[in-house]
Amino acid sequence: MLDRIKIHLATLEEAEKLAKFINTIYVEKNNENPATSSFRKEGGIRIPAEKLKKEIQNPAFRLWVALDLEQQIAGVIALTITQDPLREKWFRGSLGLFAIHPTYRSKGLGNKMREYLEHEAKELGVNEVFADVVSTQGNLFEYYKKAGFFATGTLDQFRHSSFNRGEITLVHLNKRL
Question: How many whole angstroms separate alpha carbon 37 and alpha carbon 51?
């Protein structure tokens, strides 16, 4: 199944379709995760198409798209590159907008896309990648741990209008490339 999937860098022409895909995945009705169900309550917008268009044009941002044989979106994953202000020539990549179509979940596409991102990040000179995981997502935390990420011990309050009470935090996970 995965041998039929092709991954490419997103284009500006795909932005509207990609935003729709991302927003749909983040608000699935069967997804009871507080981080994603909050988007459902607030109109289902994870990222507006106009913002995604601007991001795609940003040289520090990369969005990879996985398409199946029918040219349907199977998944997306993004990397935003920043220079570490404390270390010269040390670049960090923030992993985000990671969304897999339900048809392709638990079939290895998430791993394939994350590994692709890590390879491309290394080629771009990124020294480490990090992901912020909502504390209530234990399965996602375990996924990243199995992939070689480690918790940094840094926690932030999850800043989303539905969750300003402080009981949900973001756990920072890092992986050195």
Answer: 21
Question: What are all long-range contacts of 53-56, with beta carbons under 8 Å and residues at least 24 apart?
Answer: 53/12, 53/15, 56/10, 56/11, 56/12, 56/15
CA 84 to chain centre: 20
Task: Provide the token pair at 125.
Answer: 């000179």
Between CA 55 and CA 33 the distance in angstroms is 26
Could you tell me if 74 and 68 are in contact, meaning their C-beta atoms sit under 8 angstroms apart?
yes
pTM: predicted TM-score of the whole model, two decimal places: 0.85
**Domain residue limits at 168:** 2-176
Domains of the chain: total: 1
The one-letter code for the residue type at 47 is I
Report the share of the chain in percent with pLDDT over 90. Answer: 63
Cα distance between residue 14 and residue 35, in whole Å: 26
Q: Which structure tokens are listed for 25?
A: 């995945």
Residue numbers of the chain with a pLDDT score lower than 50: 29-30, 33-42, 161, 163-164
CATH number at residue 167: 3.40.630.30
